[in-house]
Amino acid sequence: MPYKEKILNLNGWQRLWVVATAIYLIASVIVAFNIVPTEKDIYKSWSSEIISWAITNDEKLKNYSPYSIRNSYSDMDDKELVEKMQKKYIKENVFHKFDFEIINKRYKSEMDGLSSRQVQTVGSILFLWLASSMLVYILGWSISWMRRGFKKA
Hints:
By secondary structure, the chain is an all-alpha fold. It folds into two domains: 3-36 and 121-152; 39-113, no CATH class. 83% of the residues lie in helices and 0% in strands. The chain has seven helices and no strands. It has helices at 3-8, 12-35, 39-57, 66-72, 78-92, 96-112, 114-152. Helix 2 (12-35) packs antiparallel against helix 7 and helix 3 (39-57) runs antiparallel to helix 6 (96-112). The longest helix has 39 residues, at 114-152. The radius of gyration is 27 Å and the shape is rod-shaped.
C-alpha cells in the first residue's frame, strides 16, 4: 500500500492525533526559542552581578538600587556595561581585578559552553515532544485495541 493511501486510511482518532501532534510541535518550537539560553542572557546576568558587586564595594552607590544604576547606563548594552564598570573600578583600585577575575571566569565558562547548552535544551524539548506524542498514540491505540476486544466477545 503506497504512503499516500495509508494517510488517507487514517481513522478519525489518528487524524486528530496527527493534528494535535503538529500543534504541539509548533508550541514546543516556540517554547524552545523562548527558553534557549543566549549570549545576551549571559551578559545580562554578568552585568547584574557586576552592578551588585559595585553596590557592595562602592560607598557612593550604597543607597542606589541595581535597577537605578542599570538605568543610568541605559544607552549601553550589557556587554559594554560589564567592560566599562570593570575598567572604572580597576582604575580606582588595582586589587579589584581579583574580584572581577572570579566573576569573569564563571561567565566566560558559561559562554564557552553556550552552544552545547543550546543544543541540549532544544534536544530535550524535542525529545519530550516526541516521547509524549508517542505515549499519547500508544495510549490511544491501546484503548482502541481493548475496545475491539470487547466488541468481538
